[in-house]
Write a structure and sequence with these properties.
By secondary structure, this protein is mainly β. The protein folds into 2 domains: 79 residues, no CATH class; 103 residues, Immunoglobulin-like, CATH 2.60.40. The protein is 13% helix and 43% strand. The protein is built from 2 helices and 13 strands, in the order αββββββββαβββββ. The strands form 4 sheets. A 4-stranded antiparallel beta sheet has the order 6-7-11-9, with no helix packed on it. The protein has a 4-stranded antiparallel beta sheet with strand order 10-8-12-13, covered by helices on one side. Strands 4-3-5 form a 3-stranded antiparallel beta sheet. β6 and β7 form a beta hairpin. The chain is elongated, with a radius of gyration of 27 Å.
Length: 221
């Protein structure tokens, strides 16, 4: 536990653990399992994390304010500091050791968040321009109007599929798209003049934590 920072409150350690768990899940989300078509088919999820903290609580005294006049004797204020305990650490008479066990459990998605179905499609407009269409269908009673979909080119996945990176000039006109009343939005995909024909462009959209990936093969004809 040497990497856990010391703190004045037990909350400091719990927040540190929760932050580490959140970062670990975020890393897993970046490496989804792809099917034969290069589309996302599975994402690993951490259902729970058990932890055990062995902390040394040390009491210390610090002088408190003497007031505006400055003539009253200083009063001492007690403070408790928490430190992770090492195996060889010696304890003083003013300290105590406590073992705290707990578990973080993944909670289900808030029922107030609209359950949606996110889909992507690409419509060719010219030799090197295409329109990316987003359609979102929400559960009955929920509206997604005004919700923002994050749309990006997954250049890392594209490079893996093509063995060569996409040109920097191959880009989307917009990356953040607000859905209209019908749950639709669109933007333009502009393909570099130096982009080779047959290159696969991986598009990834995200809304309410749901991700959809579409592979678009660039063909001039």
């Amino acid at each position: 536990m040497d990497d856990v920072a010391k703190g004045q409150n037990l909350d400091d350690f719990l927040i540190n653990l929760a932050d580490g768990l959140s970062k670990a899940q975020s890393r897993l989300n970046q490496y989804p399992v792809m099917n034969a078509m290069g589309q996302q088919s599975m994402v690993y999820h951490i259902p729970r994390m058990e932890f055990e903290l062995k902390l040394q609580m040390t009491a210390s005294e610090a002088p408190a304010s003497s007031g505006s006049g400055g003539r009253l004797p200083l009063q001492k204020k007690s403070r408790v500091q928490f430190l992770p305990v090492k195996a060889s650490q010696q304890h003083s008479s003013s300290s105590a050791t406590s073992i705290i066990k707990g578990v973080f459990v993944a909670a289900p998605l808030d029922s107030t968040v609209a359950q949606v179905q996110l889909s992507l499609s690409v419509e060719k407009k010219s030799a090197r321009k295409a329109q990316v269409n987003i359609v979102v269908q929400a559960a009955p009673g929920h509206s997604v109007q005004g919700a923002v979909v994050e749309l990006n080119i997954d250049r890392e996945l594209s490079e893996k599929l093509n063995k060569t990176p996409l040109k920097p000039a191959t880009r989307l006109e917009q990356a953040s798209l607000a859905l209209n009343q019908e749950g639709k939005a669109s933007t333009e995909l502009m393909i570099s003049n130096q982009e080779s024909e047959g290159q696969i462009i991986a598009l990834i959209a995200d809304l309410f934590g749901q991700t959809q990936t579409l592979l678009y093969r660039f063909e001039q004809g």
